[in-house]
Amino acid sequence: MVPVDHIPIAFSAGVPEDRWPDVRAAPHFRRWLEQATARFDLRRVVVRDVVFFGARVGFILVDADAWHDGRKVPGAALLRGDSVSVLVVLHCPGHAARTILTREPRLPVACPDLLALPAGMLEGGRLVSTALRELAEEVGTDLAVSADQMVELTTVWLSPGGCDEAITLYAVDLEIDEAAMRALDGRRTGNAAEHESIRLHVVDLDAIPRIGRSDAKTLLSYHLYRARDARRGVATQC
């Protein structure tokens, strides 16, 4: 195995030379490089393009000369790092279990009103702290959630044929009253510096499988949560 620091790394002309050290030092690039070196015969990496979010290194498109079992493997990969999401299950007297979905435009899938769970990128932090940060940013600081309430459902790769991203799915059960639940529904949130435009929707938890305009993390979190309930013998209605 060739040491990580001995892998030749080249940059295309479109990546500013003064940002090369930042790309090399980016946590998601370092992690991918270390894992790829340990598990493949990695001979060379070309950084084709980088999307910067201000000073932060965002998406990195690489093309690697990589081999496994004596055969060359497809080498294109989009490196964006890992993410987390949180299924917040609201328990309010007199209501079925409900949850909070964000509705926001998602240009990559040409969907102006995608409904999904609160989520965000890891950016070098810890999983649970990132999940709590995203809840505060996308839902609001008035929703009191602590780290010890968070239940990890699973971690999955979202598109391993082309992207490094793995997402860790969390769930949390919260007791809430009618007024607090109404205050959440329709709330506008989002990080203006990152051009986020989010509106919250409080919906019946069991509406998720048929709600449409959603994504894999939302559907998977729902089914894993309900499977966990079934194993514990918890009724589906609250």
TrEMBL record:
Note one Pfam family from the annotation: NUDIX
GO annotation terms (biological process): nucleoside phosphate metabolic process; ribose phosphate metabolic process
Would you say which domain of life the source belongs to? Bacteria
Ordered alphabetically, the record's keywords are: Hydrolase
Start and end residues of each Nudix hydrolase domain: 79-227
The record's listing under PROSITE patterns reads:
NUDIX
InterPro entries, alphabetized: NUDIX_hydrolase-like_dom_sf, NUDIX_hydrolase_dom
List required co-factors.
Answer: Mg(2+)
Extract the SUPFAM superfamilies matched here. Nudix (SSF55811)
Q: Which reaction does it catalyse?
A: GDP-alpha-D-mannose + H2O = alpha-D-mannose 1-phosphate + GMP + 2 H(+)
Task: Report the GO molecular function annotations.
Answer: ADP-glucose pyrophosphohydrolase activity; ADP-ribose pyrophosphohydrolase activity
Its family remark reads:
Belongs to the Nudix hydrolase family. NudK subfamily.
- The protein, known as: GDP-mannose pyrophosphatase
Organism for this UniProt entry: Gluconacetobacter aggeris
The lineage is: Bacteria, Pseudomonadati, Pseudomonadota, Alphaproteobacteria, Acetobacterales
